[in-house]
Amino acid sequence: MSIVKISEELHSIARARARVFNRSINMQAEHWMRIGKLIEENPDMTYRDIWKLLLEESEAETSDAN
Question: Of 10, 49, 50, 64, whose CB is crowded by the most CB atoms within 10 A?
């Protein structure tokens, strides 16, 4: 595990979002990083497209686990 230093402002925003989505702050930051990575790799995709892709990945992981 690595430590990533972020601004206090971004940390506060992550803390608030984490509460809303019932995630840890680390899970929230990882979620944002995954979205950012996908957007950089797929600049023509919209946020909605990225969200659908993440949802499909999650559903596939759930199916594979069963």
Answer: 50
Name the 3-class secondary structure at 66: coil
Which residues touch 49 (CB under 8 Å, ≥6 apart)? 42
Rounded Cα gap, residues 13 and 47, in angstroms: 19
DSSP 1-49: -------HHHHHHHHHHHHHTT--HHHHHHHHHHHHHHHHH-TTS-HHH
Amino acid at 9: E
6-53 pLDDT tens trace:
999 999 999 999 999 999 999 999 999 999 999 999 999 999 999 999
